[in-house]
Amino acid sequence: MENTEKTKWVLDESHFMRDKLHGSNSALDKYCALVLGYRSIPKLIKQELITLLFGHIPGALGLALRQVFYPMLFKNIGSNVVFGRAMTIRCPDNFIIGDNVIFDDYSILDGRGAINEPIEIHDHVVINRGAFIHSKLGSIRIGKYSTIGAGTGLVAQGNGVFIGDWVSIAGGCEMSCALFEQKEVTAEDPTPFTRYTMGPIVVGDRSIVAFGAIILDGVSIGEDCMVGAGCIVMDNLPANSTIASRPGIMIRKKKDD
């Protein structure tokens, strides 16, 4: 999966949800496209009822009920999957979830853009509180025994985000494919930008990404790497590399009274 050659792919805006939501379809069709990815009234009612009845129940009772009923939302899901409270789940048919996966409270699973390749969350993965797995266009893969920290976002736009096995990603990190270029607006094309990608984001097996790091479009991080807190990673890292941002430096000390 390593990205060794940088090739620019311009993305068609019609493939993104914005174009569907601004189209001429009915409000119901738009809602189905956002929540399911297709129109199905029985499926929509089923998903709405399950999330309404069980999504916000706190404590052990809520966990037990969601563990029974939430797997009914997915076509491909393993055993012993734990669902936290107040999750957002969109287009669940586009997910493949392994065994013993844990989703914490307020996590977001949005598979709207994983049309050709599903989002894969493998065995023993932990998705922490408020993290979001979001496909605008393309696939996402999280390997076995990996952890996604609280508030971290993985966003696929045109190319995928691929996380290896035993990877630890701390809270507050961002990994998002796609870049933007401004362009001239015309009457025929009022969009003020062109969206493009230079390739997938890849994090190799056993790598560690510390708090608040940002990994940009097309970056490949090799196996057994360490990315320091607050780093912005713009270039590929070979295996067994360590990258860190400059530490804070004390400029002066306030004089004592």
- Total separate domains: 1
Taken as a percent bin, the fraction of beta residues is: 25-35%
User: Span from first to last CA?
Assistant: 60 Å
Instruction: Tally the beta strands.
Output: 25
Return the CATH topology: UDP N-Acetylglucosamine Acyltransferase, domain 1
CATH structural class: Mainly Beta
* CATH hierarchy: architecture: 3 Solenoid
Give unreliable regions as ranges.
Answer: none
Total of DSSP H or I helical runs spanning 4+ residues: 4
Superfamily (CATH H level) name: Hexapeptide repeat proteins
What is the share of helical residues? 10-25%
Largest sheet at a glance?
8 strands, parallel
Mean pLDDT: 89
Write out the strand line-up for the largest beta sheet, numbering strands in chain order: 3-6-9-12-15-20-23-25
Structural class: alpha/beta
Rg, alpha carbons: 20 Å
Task: Report the order of strands and helices.
Answer: EHHHHEEEEEEEEEEEEEEEEEEEEEEEE
Give the overall shape.
globular
Describe the overall structure.
With 257 residues, the protein is an alpha/beta fold. The protein has a single domain, classed as UDP N-Acetylglucosamine Acyltransferase, domain 1, CATH 2.160.10. It has 4 helices and 25 strands. It has an 8-stranded parallel sheet. A 7-stranded parallel sheet has the order 2-5-8-11-14-19-22, with no helix packed on it. The model has no long low-confidence stretch (mean pLDDT 89).
Structural key phrases:
alpha/beta, seven-stranded parallel sheet, 257 residues, 25 strands, eight-stranded parallel sheet, UDP N-Acetylglucosamine Acyltransferase, domain 1
